User: Which sequence fits this backbone?
């Protein structure tokens, strides 16, 4: 029912590409594109974002430091989230949607690793 999915042709093409790639594993070699090939993080770091702790959703976002071999907390999301999307665009980390355990969220948060600032974006 989301207009982006029903009216945006580019979005529909990307969704169909993703569905074919995941639902037809035997055809993956024929479906290779720049989006499906393994690649390095564009911000050069490994991030662990949210997920589940012992009993509930986590709010933390951590970055792995290769020099010290340790995880460093770089932020806290505005709320607990599970089953969300994460993307890197223009060297910024975006955390999109998900669930808080009870209801679906349309919240979008953005982390800038250069300024180390988190901001809430419009959905």
Assistant:
């Amino acid at each position: 029912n989301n207009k982006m999915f029903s009216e945006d042709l580019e979005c529909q093409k990307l969704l169909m590409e993703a569905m074919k790639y995941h639902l037809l594993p035997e055809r993956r070699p024929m479906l290779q594109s720049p989006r499906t090939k393994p690649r390095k993080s564009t911000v050069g770091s490994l991030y662990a974002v949210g997920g589940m702790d012992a009993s509930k959703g986590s709010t933390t976002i951590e970055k792995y430091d290769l020099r010290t071999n340790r995880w460093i907390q770089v932020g806290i999301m505005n709320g607990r989230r599970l089953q969300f999307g994460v993307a890197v665009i223009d060297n910024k980390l975006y955390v999109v949607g998900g669930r808080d355990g009870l209801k679906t969220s349309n919240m979008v948060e953005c982390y800038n690793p250069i300024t180390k600032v988190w901001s809430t974006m419009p959905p």
Remarks:
- The chain has two domains: 1-39, 41-123.
- The chain is about 15% helix and 30% strand.
- The two ends are 15 Å apart (CA to CA).
- The first helix runs from residue 3 to 7.
